[in-house]
């Protein structure tokens, strides 16, 4: 199976540079002390459309030829990819049709609308998403841009790690959350391209541990309606993302729901980062495995900040 190369991620970085925000990398003295290491946060929650997914969506949109682009683009998404694709499409002056589950978080629905997307709601199942998308593509002729099982999307997602490592220099390990695997795939290629000895570690909820199971069994294990606060990590790996992850990733750690909440609180209190649950999963992995990470220089990609804080009643809890 053909994988994106480090050189292609570098080219993607140049292509999307005029459209994306080159987000900052920050540290927290308190978190460093608590973790007994050096943790660098790549703040993609400050990215346009509120998440790293704008990178991959922008790259995919601007890689279309004129004939393809004229018909617009379409996708299915619980929120962040839909908003990202909508905004990227608006920059190119084309339509974006977004199929969203009826139970998608309101903040993400509003984000898609505000980014210019045309929403079609469906039932909250993968089959309904795919069937509804098929009808949309048939009716509009739009090009389907998959949230993660897309070569150009993976290249775009890898640019976040590329920027981070050019800022921090060599790290001992880089962590990214894993749902469908687009970010972790691109991150692994970029990281290994710059620093071959750097570990790349995926992180996911133990309630949605299909990627971890896939990694350790050697075959794709599907995600079947998992129950987790990290709504962006409920999807399954694709054959493409899994093949890249198998080649480049050191391990995949799983974390509890309480640790995800604790990580959200820690990031907010001590780093000023308002991270949506999926974004906090790598920090939770460091917190649950402090001995493994002790003394290391660690890079974490904070993937998104599209969050409705009123949904959660744990902000004042002490961990």
TrEMBL record:
<keyword id="KW-0663">Pyridoxal phosphate</keyword>
<dbReference type="InterPro" id="IPR036052">
    <property type="entry name" value="TrpB-like_PALP_sf"/>
</dbReference>
<dbReference type="InterPro" id="IPR001926">
    <property type="entry name" value="TrpB-like_PALP"/>
</dbReference>
<dbReference type="Pfam" id="PF00291">
    <property type="entry name" value="PALP"/>
</dbReference>
<dbReference type="GO" id="GO:0030378">
    <property type="term" value="F:serine racemase activity"/>
</dbReference>
<dbReference type="GO" id="GO:0005524">
    <property type="term" value="F:ATP binding"/>
</dbReference>
<feature type="domain" description="Tryptophan synthase beta chain-like PALP">
    <location>
        <begin position="16"/>
        <end position="304"/>
    </location>
</feature>
<dbReference type="GO" id="GO:0070179">
    <property type="term" value="P:D-serine biosynthetic process"/>
</dbReference>
<dbReference type="GO" id="GO:0030170">
    <property type="term" value="F:pyridoxal phosphate binding"/>
</dbReference>
<dbReference type="GO" id="GO:0003941">
    <property type="term" value="F:L-serine ammonia-lyase activity"/>
</dbReference>
<keyword id="KW-0456">Lyase</keyword>
<dbReference type="GO" id="GO:0018114">
    <property type="term" value="F:threonine racemase activity"/>
</dbReference>
<protein>
    <submittedName>
        <fullName>Threonine dehydratase</fullName>
    </submittedName>
</protein>
<comment type="similarity">
    <text>Belongs to the serine/threonine dehydratase family.</text>
</comment>
<dbReference type="GO" id="GO:0000287">
    <property type="term" value="F:magnesium ion binding"/>
</dbReference>
């Amino acid at each position: 199976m053909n994988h994106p190369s480090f050189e292609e991620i570098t080219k993607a970085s140049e292509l999307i540079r005029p459209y994306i925000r080159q987000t900052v990398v920050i540290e927290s003295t308190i978190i460093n002390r608590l973790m007994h290491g050096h943790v660098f946060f790549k703040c993609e929650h400050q990215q346009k459309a509120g998440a790293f997914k704008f990178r991959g969506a922008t790259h995919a949109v601007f890689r279309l030829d004129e004939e393809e682009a004229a018909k617009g683009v379409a996708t299915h998404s619980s929120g962040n990819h839909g908003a990202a694709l909508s905004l990227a499409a608006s920059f190119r002056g084309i339509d974006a049709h977004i199929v969203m589950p009826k139970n998608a978080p309101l903040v993400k629905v509003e984000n898609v609308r505000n980014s210019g997307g045309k929403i079609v709601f469906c039932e909250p199942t993968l089959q309904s998403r795919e069937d509804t998308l098929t009808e949309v593509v048939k009716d509009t002729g739009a090009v389907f841009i998959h949230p993660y099982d897309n070569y150009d999307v993976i290249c775009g997602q890898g640019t976040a790690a590329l920027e981070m490592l050019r800022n921090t220099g060599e790290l001992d390990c880089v962590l990214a959350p894993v749902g469908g695997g687009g970010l972790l795939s691109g991150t692994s290629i970029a990281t290994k391209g710059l620093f071959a000895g750097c570990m790349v570690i995926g992180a996911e909820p133990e309630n949605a541990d299909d990627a971890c199971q896939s990694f350790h069994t050697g075959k794709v294990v599907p995600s079947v309606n998992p129950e987790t606060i990290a709504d962006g990590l409920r999807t399954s790996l694709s054959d493409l993302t899994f093949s890249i992850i198998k080649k480049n990733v050191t391990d995949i750690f799983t974390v509890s729901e309480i640790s995800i909440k604790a990580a959200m609180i820690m990031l907010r209190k001590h780093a000023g980062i308002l991270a949506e649950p999926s974004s906090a999963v790598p920090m939770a992995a460091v917190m649950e495995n402090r001995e493994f990470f002790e003394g290391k220089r660690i890079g974490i990609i904070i993937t998104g900040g599209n969050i409705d804080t009123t949904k959660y009643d744990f902000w004042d809890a002490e961990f």
